[in-house]
Automatic annotation (TrEMBL):
Protein name (database record): Transferase
Compositionally biased region (Basic and acidic residues): 19-31
SUPFAM superfamilies: Protein kinase-like (PK-like) (SSF56112)
RNA-binding keyword on record: no
Species of provenance: Streptomyces viridochromogenes (strain DSM 40736 / JCM 4977 / BCRC 1201 / Tue 494)
Amino acid sequence: MTQAPTPTADTVRDLVRSLLTDSRDGKETKQGRGGAGPDVRPAGAGTAPATWWVGTRYVLRLAPDREATLRQRRELRLRDLVRPHVPVAVPASVAQGEWAPGLTYTLDTKVPGGSGEEHDVSAVGEADLAGVLTGLREVPVRQAETLGVPRAAPRSLEALRRSAVRSAERLADADEFDAARLNQLTAAASAQLTAQPGSVVLTHHALTSGHLVVSADGRVRGVLGWADAVVGDPAEDIAGLALTVDSPAAVHAATLAGYGARPCLRGLWLARCDSVIHLAAATRQPRRHPEPPWQRTRAAPRLGADPAGTRDGPAGHRRRPL
């Protein structure tokens, strides 16, 4: 297979110039090529970035290979299906096509706001998240599958629990984690939290802080990154929110969306086990600038020792447990 060309600012600018009827629509400053083109800049690190900011109004996403092309085409169709069901913005494509033979692009309108890393989600924002979860339940599963959205079998919480216990023991030996935090999830308890038959819904499956658009007042204004969506276990999205905004907020949003205690607890334990496993893997990675243990362990128990997710912070905001 022919290797894809490496996107550069010049090639991106030329592509965008041809897409926008007036190049000023995508120009933030006069610092484009000779002042004659839209201002473009990579949205992330890397020698061959696939996502580019175009002024302040657009985002250009380039599929770097054939697999990414298939995922992008599916994502564009899925976004159109999801948009009427959710109360927040879903990116809209103003132009799409091929930027290289067999490789697609989409020029999306930018959703105003910051990331979940920049702004905390407020209590009102939790209601926005509840609307997202509710909307995902309303999307017809068969329609999503017709678009090519895959169906994913629910994960075994017991298998995940055993893996997390081993990881917690390694972390405890290194004095970086209290393994007793997992004691509440016994084999019997994990058996009670298996995914319920017939409960599959469309799940975003990547509700990370980078995919939530949050305004300065804590409202959730949009959800990005629909390429990983699957038809599957709704607890996976509850788990994603637990890791992203914290366990009380995730439980509150899921409860408002109509989920009961069982999927909420399953989601929280999926998140807790995942975080411990990932933390153990991270501590085995060589570090150029070693961090103190308290910094490395901070990420895992944003879920804290409160699996029911009942702790509240000040009015309007949730306190993030450490």
